[in-house]
Give the backbone structure.
Amino acid sequence: MSMTIKLLQDNGFECVRQYGSHMIFENKKTNRRIAVPYYSKELPKGTQKRMLKDAGL
């Protein structure tokens, strides 16, 4: 499991569905949704930073 997914789950996000190679996470408290690419290798740092910023972390 990637660090990004672990960090999202630790902060209240849960996977609501998976569409192809992307997992959709949702936080019910903040009503935010994040699409996370789920590949065998780690995501580029810029992509990780943008997803965490969009998640409010």
The chain has a mean pLDDT of 86. Residues 22 and 40 are 12 Å apart (CA to CA).
